[in-house]
Design the sequence.
C-alpha cells in the first residue's frame, strides 16, 4: 500500500473535493483513503480550506459531530464574478451576432464548456445556501447552462421538451402562452424525470417576457415541486409586462438596434444577488 | 502579497490544472503566480504528476524548451473504466426503463452531470492522443455527453439541429436517411458554429444503424471538416447493415425483449480502444 505524505494527500484531496461538490465527506473516509490519522487529515483540510478561500475556489464547510465531515461548496469571488459578467456583456455587444429580426446568435457563448462552467459556478454561488434537488431547463439552448450549474450543485437535470418523443415514456404536458408572441404552446416533462415535491432551480439561456419560465413553473406545480429560483443568462430589454419577477440574470440587453448594427448589454441583477449571499 | 508555501501551491496548482485540461501552462506562469523559483515549481509538478498518475486522475506531460511547460491530460485508468462501463450496463438492464416499442428511457442516466463527466473522461482518454478542434452532436440527447467530453478536451461544442431556428443565423442543411426507419430527414448546423477544416469528434447518446452519425459526417464534409472519431454511449443490437463502422461505444444492447420485460447489455468496444491507447 502506498505511503501517503502530506504533499500527495493535498493533491489528491483537492481533486477529490472538486469532484464531489456539495457532498459531505467524513474525516474517516479520508483517514482510510490515506491511511493517516484524523489529526493529520484535519491539518490537511485546514490548508485546503485556506487556499480555496483565498483563491476564490470555494468554501470548505466543516460539520462537527459523529456524522460530521467536510463539504466543498464551489464559489466565485466578487471581483472574479464582476469580470466574468463584464466579459459576457462585451461578448454580447459584438455586432456580428445580430441576426435579422433583432435576434442574437448565442451558440458561440453557449458552445464553450469552460465558459459555461464559470457561469455555472457563478449561479451555484448565488444559490449555494438553498436546498436544491434538481435543475430544470427547456430544450435545447438552456441545456449547457443547466448542466454547468447542476454539476457544481451535484444534482440531476430535468429537460423539458416542446415535442413529445417515444423515448421519454409517459409525460406531463401543459399549455403556456409565450409572453412575447402571445402564442399558445405546449411543453412536456417525462413523469419519471422529476420526484414529486422536489425543490427545483429553473434555468434558461434567454428570457424575454418570461412566458417559458412561467410555463416551467406551471409544469412544476403539476409535479407538486417547488421553485427555488430562476436563473437566466441573458434577459431582454424593454419588456412591458414580465410574467415572472423573481429571477437572477447574468446580463441584460439594453439596446438592440438592427439598423445601426448595435447591441448594448449591461450586467444583470446577479451582482446584487451575489452581495446579498456574502 | 501572499507568501506561498509548497502545501498551498500544490492545492492551487491541482485546482488550476484541472480547470485547464489539454492546455500548455508554462513554468514561468506558475513561477509568477506563486512568486517562487522555477526549480521549486518543477518539484511541485513532480509531486502532482506522481499523484495524478498513481490515482488515475490523468497524466501531466512535460514539454521542454523555451516555449515549454506542462499539460494536464484527463484520463481514466483501466480498472476504473471497466467499473464505469459495468455500472452503465447494469443501469441499462433495469427493466423499468423499457418503453412501448422497445425503446429505452435514458434520461435518468443522461440527466446526471457527474456520471456524464465520468463517461466524458473515458472518451477523452481514448481520444487524448488526437488533435481535436471541436465536438459535434445532434440535439438534444447527445448534448450532455458532448459537453462532458468537450470539457475534458477543452474544445467547443457544435450542436446540429433537426429544425431551423431564427436564432442560428445562416445554416448548412443536408438530407439524410435515418438508417433504421429509412425516412428522409434534414439536419442543419449554423455556418458560424464550425471553422472550415476543423477536426471534429462526433458524439451521440444512441446509435442504431448509424444514419444520424452518417448524416453528421456528410454535414461535416460540407464544412470541409475532418471526422476524427465517433463516440456513442449505447449502440443497438442486431443491426443488419451499419452505415458507419469506425466508432467507439460504452455499451451495447445485446437483447431487448419487451414481452419478457428484459434488457441485456454488454460492454461496448471502448475497453479495447482504451487498451490500444495505453
Sequence:
Amino acid at each position: 500500500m502506498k505511503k501517503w505524505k502530506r504533499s500527495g494527500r493535498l493533491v489528491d484531496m483537492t481533486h477529490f473535493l472538486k469532484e464531489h461538490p456539495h457532498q459531505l465527506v467524513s474525516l474517516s473516509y479520508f483517514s482510510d483513503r490515506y491511511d493517516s490519522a484524523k489529526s493529520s487529515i484535519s491539518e490537511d483540510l485546514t490548508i485546503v480550506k485556506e487556499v480555496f478561500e483565498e483563491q476564490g475556489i470555494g468554501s470548505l464547510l466543516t460539520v462537527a459531530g459523529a456524522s460530521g465531515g467536510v463539504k466543498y461548496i464551489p464559489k466565485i469571488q466578487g471581483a472574479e464574478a464582476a469580470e466574468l459578467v463584464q466579459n459576457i456583456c462585451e461578448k454580447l455587444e459584438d455586432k456580428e451576432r445580430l441576426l435579422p429580426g433583432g435576434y442574437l446568435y448565442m451558440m458561440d457563448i453557449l458552445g464553450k464548456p469552460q465558459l459555461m462552467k464559470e457561469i455555472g459556478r457563478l449561479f451555484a454561488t448565488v444559490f449555494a445556501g438553498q436546498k436544491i434537488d434538481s435543475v430544470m431547463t427547456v430544450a435545447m439552448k438552456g441545456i449547457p447552462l443547466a448542466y454547468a450549474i447542476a454539476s457544481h450543485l451535484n444534482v440531476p437535470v430535468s429537460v423539458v421538451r416542446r415535442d413529445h418523443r417515444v423515448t421519454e415514456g409517459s409525460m406531463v404536458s401543459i399549455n403556456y402562452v409565450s409572453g412575447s408572441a402571445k402564442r399558445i404552446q405546449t411543453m412536456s416533462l417525462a413523469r419519471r424525470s422529476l420526484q414529486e415535491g422536489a425543490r427545483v432551480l429553473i434555468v434558461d439561456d434567454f428570457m424575454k417576457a418570461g412566458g417559458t419560465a412561467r410555463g416551467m413553473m406551471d409544469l412544476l406545480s403539476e409535479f407538486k415541486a417547488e421553485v427555488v429560483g430562476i436563473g437566466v443568462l441573458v434577459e431582454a430589454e424593454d419588456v412591458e409586462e414580465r410574467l415572472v419577477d423573481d429571477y437572477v440574470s447574468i446580463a441584460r440587453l439594453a439596446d438592440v438596434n438592427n439598423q445601426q448594427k448595435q447591441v448594448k448589454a449591461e450586467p444583470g441583477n446577479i451582482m446584487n444577488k451575489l452581495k446579498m449571499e456574502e
Notes: DSSP finds nine helices and 13 strands in chain A.
